[in-house]
Amino acid sequence: MLNKRNFIRTTLAGVATMLLANIAIAQETVKPVSAPVKNVVLVHGAYADGSSWSEVIVRLQKAGLHVTSVQNPLSSLADDVDATRRILALQDGPTILVGHSWAGTVISEAGVDSKVVGLVYVAARAPDAGEDYAALAGTFPPAPAGAGLVKSGGYAQLNEEAFLRDFAGDIDPVKAKAMYAVQGRVSETLFASRTTQAAWRSKPTWYAVSTNDRTTSPQLERFLAQRMKARTIEIASSHVSMLSHPDEITNLILEAAGQKH
Asked: Which H or E run contains 92?
């Protein structure tokens, strides 16, 4: 009986020692909670330029974030992705990558970069790898802005009426006309591009749907957000919610960055 008791005591002591050792190892290997992300890279879409993020930039800077706005050439997907990657290379740590409209395609491709820890889509495309996005979009109601495209020399832009009414319909007309003057001309082949990667499949995602959008179907936006299982907000906005509702877009980016707001 004594030997049996000694055996049990020895066994229990051994188990306790193992448990304590495992706890110690676990404590050594558990990583501390990451600090909030400080870097944000903003990518503009078609018919716009980097200044389209101006209202969001000043708010993010006020919140203490390091912000950079990419200037896309809009000449090809590869060119836009390269422009974004050059900016990502300049970041000194974890980064939130944000794309508006066409730039959703760009960040879906470039967002696999190891520095990118989250993706924010603003009324944006979000194709899967190799997907025919035009065919997907064709299954949803057409957006009125497309009728205002003017093509010349292999590039296209929105005419003034379509830009003011369908692209930036809830922006002060004076500001909207200034935006129209600097709009980015897009290659006629740009929208036929297909991504080779879909960063949203492996990175946390956020999506802002513009419910009054006349450039991209709101129903399509909702579908994309649901498909990527994004944290989603809806804003009663035109296509350029980052200008007409900058507080909401800023707060969504701050949320993605783990910043209190």
From this structure: none
The helix, strand and coil proportions of the chain, stated in percent and rounded to the nearest 5, come to 45, 15, 35
This prediction has a pTM of: 0.86
Looking at the structure, tell me whether residues 25 and 92 fall in a common domain. Answer: no
Runs of H (alpha helix) within 122-182: 133-137, 160-162, 173-181
pLDDT at 9: 47
Check whether residue 5 and residue 96 sit in a common domain: no
* Mean pLDDT value of segment 86-104: 98
Distance CA 253, CA 246 (A): 11
- 15 and 126 assigned to the same domain: no
Question: Closest Cα to residue 107, out of 215, 223, 230?
Answer: 230
Is pLDDT above 60 for 81? Answer: yes
Regarding whether 119 and 2 lie in a shared domain, the answer is no
Residues 6+ apart with CB under 8 A from 234: 208, 209, 211
Total structural domains within the chain: 2
What percent of the chain has a predicted confidence (pLDDT) above 70? 86
Burial 111-134 (b: 16+ CB within 10 A, else e): bbbebbbbbbbbbbbbbbeeeebe
